[in-house]
Amino acid sequence: xxxxxxxxxLPHRMCKNSSKHLKPSKTKLRRRKSLLLKPxxxxxxxxxxxCNMLPLLLQVTKTTKTxxxxxxxxxxxxxxxxxxxxxxVFDVSDEVLVRQAAQDEQEKIRLANVEHVIVxxxxxxxxxxxxxxxxxxQSIRDCVIAVGPVAGAIYVMDCVNCQxxxxxxxxxxxxxxxxxxxxxxxxxxxxxxCTGLKFAPFRFQYPGLADHQKLxxxxxxxxxxxxxxxxxxxxxxxxxxxxxxxxSEWKTVVVNDSAEVSIQDSPQ
Length: 268
Prior knowledge:
Blueprint (H helix, E strand, L loop, with lengths): L8 H14 L3 H10 L18 H9 L25 E3 L5 E5 L4 H7 L3 E8 L2 E5 L4 E8 L2 E17 L2 E12 L5 E6 L4 E3 L4 E5 L2 E2 L3 H7 L13 E2 L11 E3 L6 E5 L5 E5 L3
Parallel strand pairs: 1-3, 2-4, 3-5, 4-6, 5-6, 6-7, 7-8, 7-9, 8-10, 9-12, 10-13, 11-14
Antiparallel strand pairs: 14-15
């Protein structure tokens, strides 16, 4: 015997009529579905039934990234850091190297839109007196590095016992030990896997610096050099991996009109 037969006729009819009002029509369901916001980045689930198709599928999914306006400054990580691939400074040891801005205006603009690199340097002083599109600094030991304003981001990796004077909208620092950073940063600098870092405001001077800052839309007064974000220290207390450099210990790198470079102590 069905359970519905146990319900008296009148209550059964009343419940049946009431349930009709609880079921929305198909038209209403379609209207509600059309009003729902579609996710901007939907997840796609792949089902691979043939193992031979897996390498091809992985190759296709890696190349589906849509190009953006900023991709012109983004170089794949697999690109070798060689003079053939990038302009910059390579494999310098026990040298003083000063690079001045190009005299040709078109060449100056071109350099301001190209990524540069400074890699594998030791016991040297490197001063780059022109703007750049982006900058990567990697594998540096016992060096002083001072560079002009960078339009994009600066990535610093694997530096030990160095002084770096950097000016950029964004500065990211990884795997560095016992380094001093003199920064002009448009956003909060980021450090990760670092120890013994000290920070001070940007102190690099050379002829034409103000014009180069305008060329890459830098605002020197908007400087977040001391608002460090340590991605390996999520507590509210001060990170033990960085500190502010005492003003009495500040240094200034100065390049004069004759391309002579000097390091001056902070005035007492």
